[in-house]
Amino acid sequence: MNGIKQVNCPTCQKIVRWTEAETYRPFCSKKCQLIDFGEWAAERYGIAEAEGESPAEADDEINDER
User: Fold this and answer.
1) 35-56, pLDDT tens digit by residue?
2) This prediction's pTM
3) Which CATH number fits domain 6-65: 3.30.390.30, 3.20.20.380, 3.30.50.10, 3.30.70.1280?
4) CA torsion sign, 27 to 29 to 31 to 37?
């Protein structure tokens, strides 16, 4: 093994070397990065809240940490 970590591009699953030279890591290209950004912007992705926690309680926790 060469010691360089490799990950799959979250969009197309192409193998990407985890090095400083890979500008768009973990994505393989600007195109895959923009596709992913578009999915977030269209609200097709989201971060699940803790079970039983209201959005207001989550905001309070974030503000308490600041």
Assistant:
1) 999 999 999 988 888 887 666 6
2) 0.64
3) 3.30.50.10
4) positive
